[in-house]
Design goal:
By secondary structure, this protein is of the alpha+beta class. The protein contains four helices and six strands; from the N terminus they run ββββααββαα. The strands form three sheets. Strands 1-2 form a two-stranded antiparallel sheet. The longest helix is centred in the N-terminal third of the chain and has 54 residues.
């Protein structure tokens, strides 16, 4: 005879399942009830995870829009401080992202909009095609930070020439 840890009744050992010649703590009827309850809890957990994933996707989209707006206003403030003409509107800025498919204009790498991590190598950056020109819809492209840092005060051609030379020396 063995006492069930769940119902507290003494039952014959044949009422218990075995695992490697060791009897389980719960009798078979109690184990069945507990397993069903456990399965129900797992289903609730799965539903919770689905809802959490939907919420995270919504937050990611919200974060993307918040970050986009913040980057636009930061670029505008910096341009004014440096006395560079800034005629690009927020709607034009958003349209650039849409046209580019939320990817870097030069490398086609998808942007990383992770929040709270500072500058990210593949985070978006506003770049003037002609570094001597103003910030307007015709002279602005959205690129990843790595490309923008490499370009700095030079032209696209200079960065491409550098990239081809770099690739040629690493073969």
């Amino acid at each position: 005879m063995k006492r069930c840890a769940h119902c507290k009744e003494y039952k014959d050992k044949s009422c218990y399942s075995k695992n490697k010649n060791k009897l389980y703590s719960y009798c078979k009827p109690c184990a069945s009830v507990l397993n069903r309850a456990s399965a129900a809890e797992r289903m609730k957990d799965i539903e919770y995870r689905k809802q959490r994933n939907i919420t995270q996707l919504k937050n990611r989209e919200l974060n993307k829009n918040i970050r986009l707006s913040a980057m636009y206003h930061t670029a505008k403030r910096n341009a004014i401080k440096r006395d560079i003409e800034f005629t690009l509107t927020l709607d034009q800025y958003r349209a650039l992202y849409e046209v580019q498919g939320w990817r870097c204009a030069r490398t086609k790498i998808p942007f990383d909009f992770t929040m709270g991590k500072g500058k990210l190598p593949f985070g978006p950056a506003m770049d003037r095609v002609n570094p001597d020109g103003s910030y307007n819809a015709a002279n602005v492209q959205i690129v990843c930070n790595v490309y923008n840092f490499a370009k700095n005060e030079f032209t696209d051609f200079d960065v491409l020439l550098f990239a081809f030379a770099l690739v040629g020396t690493t073969r």
